[in-house]
Amino acid sequence: PKKVAPKKTVKKPTPTPTPTVITLKNNKDDFNLENKAIYFAKLDTCYFCNEMKTEWEKAKQNNISIKIYEIDGNYLDKYPDIQSYVRGFPTILRYNNDRFKVFNRLRTAQNFSNFMRNG
Is there a contact between 39 and 75 (Cβ–Cβ < 8 Å)? Predict the structure, then answer.
């Protein structure tokens, strides 16, 4: 009997999961207060916002199950729930049980991740 070569199965690359990020500018209909969601108020022209970008992106990739709202600081007046907590940029907030907690640690991916998960 002839031997039949086993069929080669081509493995499709697994798509890289991406975090759920809602960019908020003038689209307040996309805004919700959600338990365990992260709210990040920033400005594109802010030195500190740009300085932390790499660490922030790493943290987002490591926490893909957490919803993140990134709010353009130029439109902060459209989001009064957040506005009163923003004293400067960047401001990262975590909402849980009807209250906000403000991130105030060293801006590293590890600290961002811990805050995203545990507040």
Answer: no
H or E segment to which residue 21 belongs: strand 20-24
Q: How confident is the model at residue 16 (pLDDT cuts 50, 70, 90)?
A: low
Q: Residue 112 and residue 57: Cα distance in Å, rounded?
A: 10
**Average pLDDT of span 21-41:** 87
pLDDT score, position 84: 92
Side-chain half-sphere of 46: how many Cα atoms within 13 Å? 15
Token pair recorded at residue 35 = 């338990």
Between CA 61 and CA 43 the distance in angstroms is 21
Instruction: Identify the band that residue 34 occupies on the pLDDT scale cut at 50, 70 and 90.
Output: confident
The runs of H, that is alpha helices, within 17-108 are: 47-51, 53-61, 80-83
Q: How far is CA 93 from the centre of its chain?
A: 11
